[in-house]
Amino acid sequence: MSNINEIADGYVERAAPLNPLEATYCGIPGYDDRMSDLSPEGFRARVDLDRETIAALKAASANDESEQVAKDAMLERLGLAVEFYDAGEATSDLNVLASPLQAVRQVFDLMPVEGEEAQRNLALRMAAVPDAYAGLRRTLLESAKNGHVAARRQVIECAKQCAEWSGRASSAAESGDGTGPESAGFYAGLVGRTGAEGALRAELDRAAQKAQAATSEFGAFLESELLPYAPEQDAVGRERYALNSRYFLGAAVDLDDAYAWGWSEVKRLEAEMNRVAGLIVPGGTVDDAVAALDHEPGRKIAGKAAFRDWMQELADRTIVDLHGTHFDIPEPARRIECMIAPTSEGGIYYTAPSEDFTRPGRMWWAVADGVEEFSTWREVTTVFHEGVPGHHLQIAQAVYQREKLNRWRRLMCWVSGHGEGWALYSERLMEELGYLEDPGDLLGMLDGQMLRAARVVVDLGVHLQLPIPAGTGWHEGETWDAELAWEFLRAHVRVGDEMLRFELNRYLGWPGQAPSYKLGERIWLQARADAKARKGAAFDLKEFHSQALALGSLGLDPLQAALARL
74-93 b/e with 16+ CB inside 10 Å = b? Predict the structure, then answer.
């Protein structure tokens, strides 16, 4: 009988060729020239592997504590993947941020562009984009005919993304004369960055043309064929939401309690922000403090390149400061790259290093069109979230632990509540450690926390169609919808309208994910409190962090169970 680690390593070996996109995202070499099969048959093959692996895990016994954690983590993750598939969620997945549609395009951001081998991989993978989208088209249409389809808002916004990437206009974005804005398109721009010449350049150009045409055609499919099936209502209801919440948290939570707690967090943060604002502008409001900070020359940076350099310097300095004091950071994980993303969709995200660290962990900023000036007070906490002690420390440290973690735990396991919860916890931790003593930087952290708390209220409120509670002083008793969500976010979150609209569309199309940040942080804080209670005077914060991160990414229920056994 195979042991748990053998089953896990075998799963990675079989999963990578079934999903080359995921292999590249995970940093597994050897699949950069291939594209995932997004047809119904491709989805079925991947879930069949999950079912087979679950059966093998249940029949196997763990040899030690590490294997028990691995078994619990894999059963939880793969079990939810099967539930997702059986419920029609996996094969109907279409949203503005993280569905198979975006995975096809975004994977190219992670691929090197220099050298003949890298450029050949780019050409082969771009040439495979048409088949990938043809398969996804069949999957989404088949799912829609079976009653599983994204809401109308998501279909329309995704069609607009296809238009932007392909350098053409969707019908939703066309001007009155039937024409729309045109650009070179993402794939043509990618080829331009390679600097390739001769026959290889010609091959890249042909592949880019195919990829762009396929992207444009997929956008047209969304508008003409999928849109008629799409419901107007954004809300997914309690049953679907509960499944999505468990998937993103790796834990089952009381949704009504989470909604009430979200409101309490909004109120707590409002009070704290008002207090800190008074330190910046005595007697002033939060808006007064924000205005003062935005007009302070020492907190402003002009230009994307200069902003990237500022992020890089802060990220590097933080690694030096924290290593050997509050954390022990492995040598390969002491390198991070700050990048400006090649698209302008807005948002900040992290991508993991490759298995051999030849591709470092990277912090990406997809700067919105027209943005050329940046306020650093807002983003100090973002660097902590995406870099160290946030995602980069958490993920790169797991990748590094070849001797302690099997390959699935190091490379393929990602749980939003664990990862985003840790990163949000890290922002608060940096205040505890004295890195946010500047009132402006502290206000930036609190403002980010407010965004995450508002997400809990809005996401649960809209998707469960909950009433706004009495005592809030705001639309009391009314039932949440997208319009009330927009009004609430604009009143509580200091983000530009374009970015905020994208954020709201994200919440409406990705139920349960946005609250996983704040609810994940809540569970991390509870895990720390539980460890303190168990160990009393022997509790050591650095040791707690080390032991928790050494477990790698896993669902928050398995995390708490594993920590309780330490």
Answer: bbbbbbbbbebbeebbbbbb
Is 440 inside any structural domain? yes
pLDDT value of residue 41? 98
Domain of 466, in residue numbers: 247-303+317-331+377-517
Q: How far apart are CA 517 and CA 422, in angstroms?
A: 8
Q: Do 187 and 173 touch, CB atoms closer than 8 A?
A: no
In this structure, which amino acid lies at residue 23? A
Residue-wise DSSP of 15-27: HHHH-HHHHHHHT
Residues 255, 229 share a domain:
no
Question: pLDDT tens digit string along 233-263?
Answer: 999 999 999 999 999 999 999 999 999 999 9
Q: What's the pLDDT tens digit per position in 273-288?
A: 999 999 999 999 999 9
Kind plus residue range of the DSSP H or E element containing 300: strand 300-302
Say yes or no: 12 and 114 in one domain: yes
Quick one: CA torsion of 127, 132, 134, 136, rounded to 10 degrees? -160
* Residue numbers of the chain with a pLDDT score lower than 50: 1, 172-182
What is the tens place of the pLDDT at every residue in 425-484? 999 999 999 999 999 999 999 999 999 999 999 999 999 999 999 999 899 999 999 999
Give the Cα separation of 156 and 105 in Å (integer): 18
Q: Is 47 among the domain residues? A: yes
Q: Looking at the structure, tell me whether residues 175 and 263 fall in a common domain.
A: no
CA 374 to chain centre: 22
- Kindly state whether residues 294 and 161 are assigned to the same domain: no
Residues 159 and 24 in one domain: yes
Rounded Cα gap, residues 124 and 251, in angstroms: 40
Q: What is the pTM of this model?
A: 0.90
What one-character-per-residue DSSP string does 419-476 give? HHHHHHHHHHHHHHTTTT-SHHHHHHHHHHHHHHHHHHHHHHHHHTTPBPPTTSSSST
Query: How many separate domains does the chain show?
Result: 2
From 373, 369, 361, select the one nearest 398 (Cα to Cα).
Answer: 361
